[in-house]
Amino acid sequence: MPRTGLAPEELKRRAVEVANQRIKSVGYSKLRVTDVAAELGVSHAALYGHFSGKADLLDAVVGHWLDKAQEELRAAVSGPGTPEERLETWLIQRLRLKRAAAVKDPELYEAYCQASDRLRDVVQRHKALWRDQIAMLLTQAIPDLHDPVYAARLVQSAMYGFNHPRLVLEYLDTEEDEVETRLRDVLRTVITGLRSTG
Length: 198
Prior knowledge:
Blueprint: H1 8-26, H2 33-40, H3 44-48, H4 54-78, H5 83-104, H6 106-117, H7 121-141, H8 148-158, H9 160-163, H10 165-170, H11 176-197
């Protein structure tokens, strides 16, 4: 057992939990690795053995949130309905998760926005995973699709206004039903276009 009294993975997990709570209480910009270490009762050097700095710790917090969101989205991918219906459900669920996070935990959501703005690896990995899921559903929905990855990128581009973290904030005052109706209309238009071109 290391001098902290915690196994390495346990220390990392606890640090993410503490950082998560501190972001909620003091804000994204005021998070300090030394404060997280103090709350854990370890030296900041012990944390720097696992996180290279504040940005790395924030990546871990954002990654944890994205992993939890991915668990919820996975059910939509393999759930009931046609592939097109599952894609629609998946996109709407992702939008709902972001809207809920922006309202419930605005400081954590800001950490996610910052990671997205800076094109951090943790966000890029999830975007690639989402693209792969979209490509799989499109392949099922349109069997003669020539380039599923290109088609998935096209869908991602079409959904940009509904899912970019900063843009989600811009229409939080808009009724959820209205936003979701627009998302469905855009998706159906893109699917129709993809079907016509193959």
